[in-house]
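tool=predict chain=A
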Amino acid sequence: GSLSSLAFIGTEFMPRLDEGSILIETRKLPSVSLTESVKISNEIEKLILQFPEVESVVTKIGRPDLATEAMGIYQGDVYVMLKPREEWTTARTKEGLIEALSREIEKFPGVVYNFTQPMAMRLDETISGVKADLAIKVFGDDPEILDSIADQILHVVSDVEGAADVQKEVFAGAAEWQIIPWREELARYGVNISELAELIEAAVGGWHVTEMIDGRRRFDVVIRLPESYRANRETLSGIQLRAPQGELIDLRQVADIKQLSSPEVIQREDGQRRLAVQANVRGRDLGGFVAEVRERIQEQVQLPTGYYLQWGGQFENQERAMRRLSVVVPTAIFLIFVLLFWSFNSVSQALLILVNVPFAAVGGIAALWLRDMNLNLSASVGFIAVFGVAVLNGVVLVSYFNRLLQKGNSLRQAIIEGSSVRLRPVLMTALVASLGFLPMATATSAGAEVQRPLATVVIGGLVTSTLLTLVVLPVLFSLLGNRSRVES
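tool=predict ok
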């Protein structure tokens, strides 16, 4: 029953570690200027500082000089340093504080945000290239189809319980001028298209004319039209080009000028264009959330030929860890069986002692349910630890039963005397381990999130394994001994 209940328990890679601070990733419109981006970030900082739990706020916009992180000026990482938990008044938990902050930041139009923590953000970005718990990457060739598929996935993920900060990567939104030359008109005036390109480059992009030297430093001197000319279609259309015969030709006479919304950034992975939808998970386990999202996307989103999805984020680590544990745990149990066989020279007794492994699993799983914890890597390590203690207790009992039988005691006498004599060593082994893990199971300090599942599983597993070892193991040994006598 306990093993079957694992299908319904929540799963995750590791418990969410409280770093004592919050990182809010903000995204404005891609076409925002640096001045406006700084202004909006300052307003967000002022709003966050109104919360009594916040000690200080600092925002990083764009990328640093060394370009260690590719960020546009429309992106900003807001680092929120928090006061000690005893001074909080808005909420008693970090999740509650994030909810309160989220409601206030929603008031800023055109700002998309994502709540995480500094170290967690770096880990997520290293794993999947996206700063969130879950990343759904859409791969394909046509940008419009990619955008359409991402919109469908965004709608599906937003409807799943536990989804938070759902957003898709910024794809378009940067304003640009598209100048299409009319070759027939250029030929009629005798103007080469390269001359038109040079004019546009000088007017809009800038023309390098000379270099200023200040000691060892050198500065390029570039000329171009003022911002008011470059940002206005009419004034841009009025730029004049001199023909070989001396005529002055307006740009509008030889080219069509359009204002378009172009891609801000084109993301590629493994040589393939991709667009990602990201989401955080709050209020439920990551494994269950990903499973539900996968099921819904499979039902509601149809991918054209040549387009496919990849799933990334923290659950990638979880899947890798579970795959390794599915190999490591059976291997460890097999090695324990080999050692037990060498010790007792009996397959039946080696298997009998291994019965303590499910005895321990029962308590560990029950403890996770009682404390409303998810099955994660920390809890899995706890199961491995408690299996060792459970096997040790089985060895203590069975070895003493065998010793009494060798002295000439009957099977019943050996079991009764052995159980009573070995009661104290078995209880001491279990109590020492349980009491040793008790502070970890009840800890609330920094880093306790990782310790609690491990300690909980060990304590719960020791309770059931000790009780069942003292009650069930002697009964099974008795049945095994009677069967051996009948066969002999």
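The radius of gyration is 34 Å. The chain is about 50% helix and 20% strand.
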